[in-house]
Amino acid sequence: MVVAAIGVFFALPKAPQVRTIELEARDFGYNGVKGGPAIQIKVGETVGIVLNNAGGLPHEFKVVQDVKMSMAESMEPIFNGAATRVIKPGETDSITFVPTKAGKYFYGCFMDEGTKPDRHSDRGMFAEFIVQN
Ligand SMILES: [Cu+2]
What integer pLDDT is reported at residue 29 of this predicted model? Predict the structure, then answer.
């Protein structure tokens, strides 16, 4: 009985590892790179995003299928939970999500505050988000 219990204990799966990526948003990009650094992730990997807004306008992080999507189409992220709140300058928000399908996607900021009718993505605030099998 004791042996069986020990066997179960060691068979427990490890807590999923979170791949944390820190991003600093500015007007109009992430981490001082034009648009932002490309992010590469594996399907099923838990991604943690810590977004800090170091810019002068509200910003967000959201993963979408295509940066050319309309405002309405880009309201929902392509993966469940793959969007931060829209945060004000000086604020931080953290999220975790799991990309469930391989492909080439984009992350970016699709707000238009301060840039109407352009969105921040129209000003170059996006980068590739690659999900590999
Ligand atoms: Cu923005």
Answer: 98
The answer to whether position 3 is within a domain reads no
CA of 126 to the centre of ligand 1 (A): 9
Ligand 1 centre distance from Cα of residue 105 (Å): 18
For the chain, the average pLDDT equals 91
In a domain, residue 9? The reply is no
Q: What CATH number does the domain containing 95 carry?
A: 2.60.40.420
Domain that holds residue 83: 19-132
CA dist list (Å): 53 to 33, 79, 93, 101: 15, 22, 9, 28
Residue 97 falls inside a structural domain: yes
Q: What is the mean pLDDT of residues 72-87?
A: 93
102 CA distance to ligand 1 centroid (A)?
A: 26
| CA-closest candidate to residue 97, choices 59, 39, 45 | 45
Q: Please give the distance, rounded to the nearest whole angstrom, from the Cα atom of residue 40 to the centre of ligand 1.
A: 22
- What is the 70 CA–ligand 1 centroid distance (Å)? 15
How many Å lie between the centroid of ligand 1 and the Cα of residue 30?
Answer: 10
For residues 6 and 32, the answer to whether their CB atoms sit within 8 Å is: no
| Counted domains in the chain | 1
